[in-house]
Amino acid sequence: MTFEEQWIEYDYNPFVVFNINGKVLSLNSEAQFLLGVATPKELFALAKAYASVTFGFKTTFVNLEFGRYKFFGLTIGYENEDKIGVKLYQAPTFKLNKPKSDGELTNIFAIVDLCIATNSMTSDIKYVKNYDPTIPEIIINSNKLIKVLNKIYSCLQDNDQITTEVYYRIGEHIKFEDKKYSIFSITVSADNINDKQRNELKVLVEHSDFYVDIKSDFTINIPMITS
């Protein structure tokens, strides 16, 4: 593999080349992860929709989402009618206000279970849990995380069921101090959200060390710092 080929292979942005019939001819590592949530047919349709009217390359800034992937633009290129390539540019999924937590080694499941127990004592809500048990103990400020989680659960009290998932973010990591850390997420979801509590959550998050993706559900993205 040449240097240029390695550069494409390990690019953070997905890159796929199709033939005229939409068959995948080649793709890089990140595109393999993307195809876990997007079909070749969908990506080929994008390539055709955003391609230049003549041979060459065209970059378009457009917001796209496929599962956990978010993109702010794409480049389409073709030099003949035999094949066409598409490169999508990933938007940053989250940021960390501080490079490292000031907490201590903590069992994340114990923290989540504690918050669920606290919020379930005075309600009939059914709490559904879906945990990846392979996630290790991490260094985190447990008091700050408990405050954020409790506020998230308070946003969802007008529901019959609340689902909590703890899972790896496959293929994602963050790097600081010359060290790479994998990422996991805590996602809490339900049908109804209290807008007043959600606004209070936004204020709380702004003054915390956590990034919470607040949409139709709530996702806390956390680096797995173990030492």
Tell me what the structure shows.
The strands form 3 sheets. A 5-stranded antiparallel beta sheet has the order 2-1-5-4-3. The longest helix is centred in the middle third of the chain and has 13 residues, at 108-120. The mean pLDDT is 87. The protein is elongated. It is of the alpha+beta class and 227 residues long. The two termini are 36 Å apart. It contains 6 helices and 12 strands. The protein folds into 2 domains: 3-90, Beta-Lactamase (2-Layer Sandwich); 104-223, 2-Layer Sandwich (Heat Shock Protein 90). The chain has helices at residues 3-9, 29-34, 40-50, 108-120, 142-154, 195-206; strands at residues 15-19, 24-27, 56-66, 69-78, 83-90, 104-106, 126-131, 138-140, 161-176, 179-189, 211-214, 217-223.
Question: Total strand count, please?
Answer: 12
How would you name the CATH homologous superfamily of the largest domain? Answer: Histidine kinase-like ATPase, C-terminal domain
CATH topology tier name of the largest domain: Heat Shock Protein 90
What is the terminal-to-terminal distance? 36 Å
Q: What fraction of residues sit in β-strands?
A: 35-45%
Number of domains: 2
Helix coverage percent = 25-40%
Nearest-integer average pLDDT: 87
Please state the overall shape, judged from the principal axes of the Cα atoms.
elongated
pLDDT below 50 for ≥5 consecutive residues: which ranges? Answer: none
Number of helices: 6
Radius of gyration: 21 Å
Order of strands, main sheet, comes to 2-1-5-4-3
The name of the CATH architecture of the largest domain is 2-Layer Sandwich
